[in-house]
Amino acid sequence: MTDLASYNFAYLDEQTKRMIRRAILKAIAIPGYQVPFASREMPMPYGWGTGGVQVTASIIGPDDILKVIDQGADDTTNAVSIRAFFEKVANVAVTTHTKEATIIQTRHRIPEQKLGEGQVLVYQVPIPEPLRFLEPRETETRKMHALEEYGLMHVKLYEDIARNGRISTTYAYPVKVAGRYVMDPSPTPKFDNPKMHMSDALQLFGAGREKRIYAVPPYTDVVSLDFEDHPFEIQKFEQPCALCGARGVYLDEVVLDDKGGRMFVCSDTDHCEERREEGHTGEMPSQEAAE
Amino acid sequence: MYVAVKGGETAIRNAHRLLADRRRGDRTLPSVTIEQIVEQLGLAVDRVMAEASLYDRPLAALAVRQSRGDLIEAIFLLRAYRTTLPRFGTSVPIDTAKMLVERRVSATYKDLPGGQLLGPTFDYTHRLLDPSLIADTPVEEPERREATGDAVMRVADILAHEGLIESDGEFPEDHQAGDITREPMEFPMPRDLRLQSLARGDEGFLLALGYSTQRGYGRTHPFVGEIRIGEVEVEIEVPELGFSVSLGRIQVTECQMVNQFKGSAKAPPQFTRGYGLIFGQSERKAMSMSLVDRALRAEEFGEDITAPAQDEEFVISHSDNVQATGFVEHLKLPHYVDFQAELALVRKMRADIEAARNGDNPMQEAAE
Amino acid sequence: MTDTPLLKVNSVSKFYGQRIGCKDVSFDLWPGEVLAIVGESGSGKTTLLNCISTRLMPTAGSVEYRMRDGNFRDLYHMGEAERRFLMRTDWGFVHQNPADGLRMTVSAGANVGERLMAVGDRHYGKIRDTASDWLTRVEIGTDRIDDQPRAFSGGMRQRLQIARNLVTNPRLVFMDEPTGGLDVSVQARLLDLVRGLVNDLGLAAIIVTHDLAVARLLSHRMMVMKDGFVIEHGLTDRVLDDPREPYTQLLVSSILQV
Questions:
Q1: Buried b vs exposed e over C188-214: b needs ≥16 C-beta within 10 Å?
Q2: What is the pLDDT of residues A27-48, one digit of tens each?
Q3: In 10 A of CB B235, how many CB atoms?
Q4: Between C190 and A60, whose confidence is greater?
Q5: Percentage helix, strand, coil, to 5, in chain C?
Q6: What span, in angstroms and rounded, lies between the C-alpha atoms of C109 and C26?
Q7: In this complex, is the C-beta atom of A43 within 8 Å of any C-beta atom belonging to chain B?
Q8: Disulfide engineering: B274 pairs with which of A66, A252, B202, B257, CB 3.0-4.6 Å?
């Protein structure tokens, strides 16, 4: 009971890392295909990023620079916690700057800044199976993927339009990868889907509880499912970021009071800070100056 | 000026400090020791060992203490530790027929060789709160008798001797026992992996499923052939030596459920089995496990699969409480990016309907 | 009708252990031809239908199907992907219980449109127009297009199931007691509808029924099954008006008594 805390570099033992790397290589070789892997119990709860953490732990080296975001922000509690975990067990350099990072682990967002070659984006995935809510059985969904039977996916989109006048899927919006597998991009808003297409960076997806790894290699087609007459569209925000004035980025709504007062600010905190450092401002700081 | 909430690291640090404070509680009271937990909360310790799949009482007790008595949290702690341990090999199957029995009851025979041994059971205690426990009055020594040294015959073996029960299930000679903690799960699952999953499955979940089979959701006509609790030898084969060496003894609870018979004009009828085996003392879990094991064999016996307890993918996918609690509790993590997406959509749709109602902009999209 | 059959069934047998499901059944089916398989329950007619439609693998025998390119393919040696594709494009299967063939929690429009989407149609408006057209053809009001079949009567559900099957213009449709669960007046309307569609579309069909009236109304030819064997086979009018086997005579007389 005395030598409880002697862990390997990046927590996982080397055999486990090797097993996960093999799964990753297979996933890269078959873009969008969900590779089963023997997910380990991690010292953080299932559903809190254990898949992403295992992927990161398997690819990280002492020279890597790690960035961890949750909801686009570096300072959300779970991002802080995962970053602290890797600082502790791998003693790697960490950063909040997107362009400095070699590995970015994310939950629910893709950074606004275009990722480059050599960068790896690791997604935390709760439910890897895009067909799960149409067909709960693993045995059946695997067959549907194998036989490329994806009609049901469009039935779901058809129902959206019939009922709501538009495709009402706003996040975890299904995509087809390299013209073959339908894939769940994890619960990122559909706003981020276009960033996955022909990305310069390697995208890896880890689902710990469901024990699946999948990947989109660099420069791969990623097409959001849609209808010709109801084409895929991303969210548009009417106003720019209240802090940095950015347009064409994803915004968080911040409630200011109980009288309907609200403001919209960048969800990507690093992007917002960099813009403000460059001198961009939104309406909120200038209001303060006028008061 | 809007100031974004920062300082996640400080917040987390302070939260953990407060947690440590609450765990310790009133400092004027002595801290509960690992030994006290092992000795006096033994069944909690056993449950943690069983569902963490790690037989180590002091570590399980540490986990119970660290988790403030939240047993699922304790199981989680112990499992996260277990996963970092190297695996040296697989033990020889334990032989429960050679068990040093502390409790042994059968519901199928009034008396049998070895007798009915009640052992340390809550059965037949009147559930009246006992004020003498408040004062910590001395407790009598238990009644003891010399062990005969004879192996206590298993009820299933008595039935098997007459051919009245199906055989224990055979695997081919070259079958390697699977390991659900090392290989990805795939359905349909062989019975060895299924039993492994059930052995570490949540006691409450298995109890509810076992109960449901009794109420008609997948009936199996169970009789408790035998429940035995006691110590067995764990041996490991060392290839260099050519024989097996004992690693020590562990306490286990085994339940052999004797179920509905099967047969046909050609094959004479035999009872079928449901099996449960758990680390430590946990009769409730071993019994539930054996009910669910038998229910999950529905397909093997050509029974209709109509009830939740018979549905392998459903049962096995949802029996792990560490997975379940993680995913249920992850809902409290921030989801505001996705919520924002839904919020914007609902606002837009409401605006469209409002506009249509005012007649200034018929819902063109929807009418297309 | 052309000179080449659409389907060639050769000595199909299915055993369940020692028990015979169906034994040594052979026949050819021509394009546009409707064949009724009649018999009492337990006679093996549904087993045979399931074997021919590859929903069940037979113990022995082969079934060849003439693909759209004119070549015959052995169905039992086809890959699963190809067979499933065939089943959802060139074939239809109408179940006795509509709930087995429909998605009950998906709108009528999507039920009809699913096969189109499965084969790659990606224009919502056109899919909806086609669905709407098919609902009209099976006498379901187009105002019901967004309703779920849960809200439909038994007869409507069965008509919806037929529309869902015919939307890809299949050449062959299997029907298992299509009027089974319906009351008599609803049955008559459905039979009229099926007869009209089969004629208009030039469909080949294999219909399993215990009801000789259904066979009389819909089929060109019929096979009578008993204990897994085909005991009589011929043009429907001939079999019904001049049955040769004593068992068939009994069946026919029992219906005439009604």
A1: eebbebbeebbeebebbbbbbbbbbbb
A2: 999 999 999 999 998 999 998 9
A3: 17
A4: A60
A5: 45, 25, 30
A6: 39
A7: yes
A8: B257
The type of residue at C125 is G
Question: If you average pLDDT over residues A154-163, what whole number do you get?
Answer: 93
What single letter denotes the amino acid at residue C138? V
Which residue in A41, A25, A42, A21 sits closest to A33, CA to CA?
A25
> What is the spatial distance between Cα B32 and Cα A66, in angstroms, rounded to a whole number?
41
Q: Measure Cα distances from A18 to A13, A197, A215, A259, B217 in Å.
A: 9, 29, 17, 55, 44
Instruction: Judge whether B203 and B47 are in contact, CB under 8 Å.
Output: yes
Mean pLDDT of chain A: 92
C117 and A154: CB-CB below 8 Å? yes
Point out the residues of chain B with pLDDT beneath 70.
1-7, 360-368
**Any idea which residue has 């769940």 for tokens?**
A184
CB contact (8 A) between residue C122 and residue A154: yes
Name the residue among C63, C54, C59 with its Cα closest to residue C22: C59
Chain A, 44 to 63: residues with Cβ < 8 Å from chain B are 45-48, 50
pLDDT at C81: 87
ipTM over 0.85: yes
Instruction: Return the pLDDT at C258.
Output: 39
Between chain A and chain C, the number of residue pairs with CB atoms below 8 A apart is: 55
pLDDT band at A65 (very low <50, low <70, confident <90, very high): very high
Chain A residues 151-170 with a CB less than 8 Å from chain C: 151-152, 154-155, 158-159, 161-163
Q: Which residue has the tokens 């000789």?
A: C212
Task: Copy the structure tokens of residue A248.
Answer: 């064409």
In this complex, do A77 and B336 lie within 8 Å of one another by their Cβ atoms? no
Residue that has been written with the tokens 């050609």 in this structure: B266
Q: How high is the pLDDT of residue C255?
A: 63
What percentage of residues in chain A have a pLDDT greater than 70? 96
Which two tokens mark B194?
């299924």
Q: Which residue(s) pair with A266 in the sheet?
A: A251
Count of CA atoms in the C-beta half-sphere (13 A) of C10: 11
| Dihedral class, residue B68 (left if φ above 0, else alpha if ψ from -120 to 50, else beta) | left
pLDDT at res. B151: 82
Distance separating alpha carbons of residues A134 and A157, to the nearest angstrom = 12
Sign of the alpha-carbon dihedral angle for B331, B336, B339, B341: negative
Which chains have at least 3 CB atom pairs separated by less than 8 Å from chain A?
B, C
Q: Tokens standing for B180?
A: 């659900």
pLDDT at B129: 93
User: What's the Rg (C-alpha) of chain C?
Assistant: 18
Q: What is the pLDDT of residue B356?
A: 87
Q: What is the pLDDT of residue A285?
A: 63
What lies within 8 Å, CB to CB, of B302 at 6+ separation is: none
Structure tokens at A46: 């299932």
Q: For the residues of B188-205, what is the DSSP string, one character each?
A: S--HHHHHHHHHTS-HHH
Res. A11: pLDDT tops 70: yes
Structure tokens at C103: 């998605």
Q: In terms of DSSP bridges, do strands C7-16 and C60-66 run parallel, antiparallel, or are they unpaired? A: antiparallel
The predicted model scores a pTM of 0.86
Query: Residues of chain C whose pLDDT is less than 70?
Result: 1-2, 255-258
Backbone angles phi, psi at B89, to 5 degrees: 175, -175
Put residue C39 in one of left, alpha, beta given phi > 0 → left and psi -120 to 50 → alpha: left
CB C157 within 8 A of CB C98: yes
Per the structure block, which two tokens stand in for B47? 């449950």
| Closest Cα in chain A to B60 | A1
Nearest Cα residue in chain B from A172? B338
Tell me the two tokens of residue A67: 């960035």
Across the interface, whether the CB atoms of A227 and C123 are under 8 A apart is answered: yes
pLDDT for res A283: 86
pLDDT at A290: 37
